[in-house]
Design goal:
Layout (H helix, E strand, L loop, with lengths): L6 E5 L9 H15 L3 E6 L11 E3 L4 E5 L2 E5 L3 H14 L3 E5 L6 H8 E2 L2 E5 L7 H15 L3 E4 L2 H11 L4 E2 L6 H5 L11 E5 L9 H14 L4 E5 L5 H5 L9 E5 L3 H10 L2 E4 L9 H8 L4 E4 L2 H6 L7 E3 L4 H13 L1 H14 L5 H16 L6 E2 L4 H13 L1
Parallel strand pairs: 1-2, 1-6, 2-3, 6-8, 8-9, 9-10, 11-12, 11-14, 12-13, 14-15, 15-16
Antiparallel strand pairs: 4-5, 7-17
């Protein structure tokens, strides 16, 4: 572990005040580094610039764009570039840690603007990254400037190697496992219950797969109940639920971290029916740490996280019938649920920040070898060329 106190600049590409796994990872990483005595500044887009933590600097308001099966709120352009350069100049950083530098965002702008020790973490996992294909010729020189590269999963590493012909060391997302290990079972969530947490309005989160499975589950478990937590308006979803089963559903809205721990300790089964676009699955790691019996689709990231089924049950992605069979089997077999729950809880310790933090520190050490701190590039020809293209089009 590094003993030298560092000045670390972290760039978050997505809107800070919008729920997301990347933002959560960066928040936890920043707070872990601060607790270890380092100086940390996070640059991020923000919708509400008045309620940011002390360590977060706003780069401006993000805009929403479709990306990887969801809507990403990012920031890009000349004004953002000026703010990125000002932040780097004022920060006097020993090292920059850029998240998702392979998409048009302030992370890519920082990579263009700076020289010196830089670490890039790649989160996305997708078969087809059209954005990367479109800007590949100008992206690759920027990625080559990175001193070290991290991928949060093997799926994310393969996405990077396939699209940009470069490699990365795999270090998973971190969680504070003890926060979830101390959850207290709540009567309101106990019984033949199924839990789901996520942005349920996004199709790739797969709630519709669970909805399609519910009529089959209810025939064999007449008292089954489903609890859905997370941001979104449930009205449209409720319209798609069989009226005879609607009373079995309860939408909880956003829940606190403390409630999440209790939730995982209470539900009989936690389900992640995601259909794709996931590079890691931090909610699965949290569910395991909380002692939940996890059922997840067999998309590559989830299959890897669950050890091919050793730490949680897997079903064929988008196959609601197989999901129903898997859930019915586990609801009938309490001992099997306990075995999976115990194995998953033990496995979750490898994602704890005490472990993940040391691994990230080792990458920082590699990046700092021979480095003299971060400096601004005197002239950015790539950005100037892009501006020239825009002027030519006018």
């Amino acid at each position: 572990m590094l003993t030298t106190r560092l000045k670390i600049g972290i760039v978050c590409p997505y809107g800070w005040d919008v729920p997301g796994g990347v933002q959560n990872h960066i928040r936890d990483l920043a707070e872990f580094l601060l607790a270890a005595g380092h100086s940390v500044s996070v640059l991020a887009p923000a919708i509400d610039e008045t309620s940011l933590p002390d360590y977060v600097v706003s780069a401006g308001k993000p805009i929403a764009i479709p990306y990887n099966g969801a809507v990403a709120r990012v920031l890009f352009g000349p004004v953002a570039f000026s703010r990125v350069k000002a932040w780097i100049s004022q920060g006097d950083f020993d090292l920059l840690h850029l998240h998702e530098p392979a998409i048009p965002s302030i992370s890519l702008l920082a990579c263009w603007a700076a020289e010196g020790p830089m670490v890039g973490t790649f989160h996305a996992a997708a078969k087809h990254q059209k954005v990367i294909y479109a800007i590949g010729p100008i992206l690759e020189p920027a990625i080559e400037k990175l001193s070290a590269r991290i991928a949060v999963s093997e799926a994310a590493r393969l996405t990077l190697t396939n699209h940009l012909d470069t490699d990365a060391v795999v270090i998973p997302n971190g969680i504070y496992s003890k926060r979830y290990a101390n959850g207290k079972p709540q009567d309101k969530w106990l019984g033949n219950t199924i839990g789901f947490i996520g942005r349920f309005e996004e199709p790739r989160k797969g709630l519709h797969v669970l909805l399609d499975a519910l009529p089959i589950i209810a025939r064999f478990a007449p008292d089954v109940r489903v609890f859905v937590a997370g941001p979104g308006d449930p009205k449209d979803v409720e319209k798609t639920i069989d009226p005879q089963l609607r009373q079995r559903f309860e939408f909880l809205g956003r829940i606190s971290e403390e409630d999440k721990a209790d939730f995982m300790a209470s539900v009989a089964i936690y389900v992640a029916p995601n259909t794709g676009g996931e590079s890691f699955g931090i909610i699965l790691a949290e569910a395991l740490a909380g002692g939940a019996c996890v059922v997840a689709s067999d998309i590559p990231a989830f299959e890897s996280l669950l050890g091919g089924g050793e730490f949680g049950a897997l079903f064929a992605s988008e196959d609601s019938t197989e999901l129903a069979k898997t859930i019915i089997d586990l609801l009938r077999d309490g001992q099997k649920r306990q075995v999976l729950s115990k194995a998953g809880k033990d496995h979750a310790q490898i994602f704890d920040w005490d472990v993940v933090g040391d691994q990230i520190f080792s990458i920082y050490e590699m990046a700092l070898v021979g480095g003299e701190g971060v400096t601004l590039v005197s002239e950015n020809r790539t950005w100037n060329r892009l501006l020239s293209r825009d002027e030519d089009k006018k």
